[in-house]
Each structure stands twice: as C-alpha cells, then as structure tokens.
Amino acid sequence: EYYGYVVYALSLLSWVAYMVWALAPGLFESVGITYLPDRYWALALPSWGIITACFVWLFLQLHILYHTPDRHSSATLT
Fold it and tell me: Using CA atoms, how far apart are residues 65 and 70, in angstroms rounded to an integer?
C-alpha cells in the first residue's frame, strides 16, 4: 500500500512538472534550471504516445481477426 502512494505521488509530481514546463517554462529558469527541451516536445511526445497506442490497439485487433478460425470451421464449435 505504501508503494501505491509513492507511485501516485511521483506521477502527480511528474505531471505537474510537465505542465509547468509546457505552459510556463520561465519558472524553471528562476529556480536555476537553464536547459530544457524545446517546447515542440510538449506536444510531440503526447501525440506520438497517442498515435502509438492507437496503432498497437489496431494491430492487436487485426492480429486477433487474422488468427480467428473460419465461421464454418469445426474449431469454432464449443
């Protein structure tokens, strides 16, 4: 139960840091962090993630359909 809280806290902290980086990068510079990736990546990484997830979902659906026996096959009888 402690590990779940740690994972939750770290994911929340990561999300807040990401949002600050994406929306107000000047806050990191005031703390002393001068190198940050380009703001292009604030949109590119989530976009790539969503497209990858959609591709994996589509590939799995097509894989399941490809390996499903024919409707008239005796393997489909239960």
Answer: 10
Q: Is 70 helix (H, G, I), strand (E, B) or coil?
A: coil
User: Would you place residue 8 in the very low, low, confident or very high pLDDT band (cuts 50, 70, 90)?
Assistant: very high
Contact yes or no for 39/25 (Cβ under 8 A): yes
- Which residue type is seen at 10? L
Give pLDDT tens digits for 18-75: 888 888 878 888 888 888 888 888 889 889 999 999 999 999 999 999 998 888 888 8
* 9 burial type by CB count under 10 A (0-12 exposed, 13-18 middle, 19+ buried): exposed
